[in-house]
Amino acid sequence: MTPARLHRFMNLWPPFLFSGIRVQHVAPDWRSARVRLKLAWYNRNYVRTHFGGSLFAMTDPFWMILVMECLGRDYVVWDQAGSIEFVAPGREDVYAEFQVDEAVLEELRAATAGGQKYLRWFDTEVKTAGGELIARVRKQLYVRRKRRDGAA
C-alpha cells in the first residue's frame, strides 16, 4: 500500500464515504495526514451538531496506520484503547491532523528493542477551519518488535 492508494481507498471506504469523512492528505513518507468531516443532514445528531461517533471515526485508524508504516514490517502495531472528550458543539466542517515525529519513532524503537510491548498515547484535536476546538481524541497504541522467528 502506498500513501496515495491509502488516500484513495479511505475516501471510497463505506464507513468514511457514508459518514462525510474525507482524507485530504497522506504524506508520501507516512509522517502526516489530514482528515475532514463535513457536517451534513446524514451525520448530525438530535441537536443538529456533529454525531460523536463520526467525530471519533474520523480519527480512528490514522495513528495506527501512520506509526505502523513509519516503523516498518518488523513491528506489531495495534490500537489498544481510545477516548474522546467533547469540548464544543460541532456546527460546521471539522478537521483532524496527525503528525508522527522522529522523536516519537525513536522512543518506540528504544522502548521495544528487547521485544517487550510498549503502550503509548497519541492525542488529536478536532477543530473547525477557524481553529475552534470541538473535541480531543486520545488513542493508545500497542507497539512491539516482532519476534525473530516471524511469529507476531
TrEMBL record:
> InterPro entries under this entry?
DUF4442, HotDog_dom_sf
What Gene3D superfamilies does the annotation carry? Hotdog Thioesterase
Q: Looking at the Swiss-Prot or TrEMBL record, what is one Pfam family this protein matches?
A: DUF4442
Q: What is this protein called?
A: DUF4442 domain-containing protein
Lineage of the organism: Bacteria, Pseudomonadati, Pseudomonadota, Gammaproteobacteria, Lysobacterales
